[in-house]
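Appendix B, Record 12. Input sequence as logged:
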Amino acid sequence: MGGCSSQSCHRCFFEYETERMIVVKSKVVGSVFRLIQFLILFYVIGYVCVVQKSYQETDSVISSVTTKVKGTGFTNTSDLGARVWDVADYNIPPQGESSFFVLTNMIVTPNQTQSTCPELPNQSTICMSDSDCLEGSNDVRGNGIQTGLCMNYSETVKTCQVLSWCPLEIDINLPEHALLVAAEDFTVLIKNSVTYPKFNFHKRNILPDVNSSYLKQCEFNRKTDPDCPIFRLKDMVSEAEEDFQTMAIRGGVLGIMIDWNCDLDWPEHYCGPKYSFRRLDNKIPENNVAPGYNFRFAKYYKTTDGRETRTLIKAYGIRFDVIVFGTVNAVCSWFLLTCTKRRDYYSKHKFTYLDNTDDNAGEPVSY
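Logged structural output:
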């Protein structure tokens, strides 16, 4: 145990030690040993390889999204009169990054001009005399700059006068029903391109064999037409278990989820988008402060005498956010394209790059 002595060191240097194995013939010990071996094998093959697929190389998706909304509606109100609404009127702004907004309801304040008028009554603006109003005061929650005068807002209430866009907006009288009821039948074309750079894999949600004739007549249906990239707004809201006309009164935010989780060990045509829809904003009845989705914008005009005037619109509607996510897994393709001598040759024949203007790839697509 103490090692080699100085006298026999040269002999120890040339010695070799090995383990001695004893085979015990016991059914109990042997069964336990084989059970442990089986459990380890089951864990590696069943869980690590099959369930977790830890043997595969993974990559995260890089995505781009563009949208185009279509549809027309008609309204007839005292403020705006009878008018037809097209995409330039209700799709605000016309271009967005992975999102788009559709106007469904509104409060209109027409013929506003830069002038003076009584402020809307609240605890800080109600006055009894001019001494209650501070000239030049600007309340961030108010509508203008105080002039220092106390004016009649109504027969019973006085408020401080402000310099502002007058008459002021009164936004408490929201229509009980959405004005643009036809919006539920509007459609949107979603164009989504994804890339997995590690595997040089590219794909679109518009399939290679799609042409303009197909796009002009198709509409997404999970059972009959799951590959169509054109979606009816009401159908998306319904799949999120919401009623379109109810949601259209005060607006809201709807998520369009596109799932690109793919396994490249299988043929590429198995890799495709999976769509789902979900309401994203808060609609809990117990916490309904500031519900829905709205913002303001104005349209400006010049009168015949050169005076500037505007129509203020408080727009309510549904914002659609397109959310793309996914990972790709592969082991065979990655090995083929990175570790073999002919990887450049395989890559050339594995991926086909199509030009939409190429006659052999089908006619150019428009929508």
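The first strand starts at residue 57 and ends at 60.
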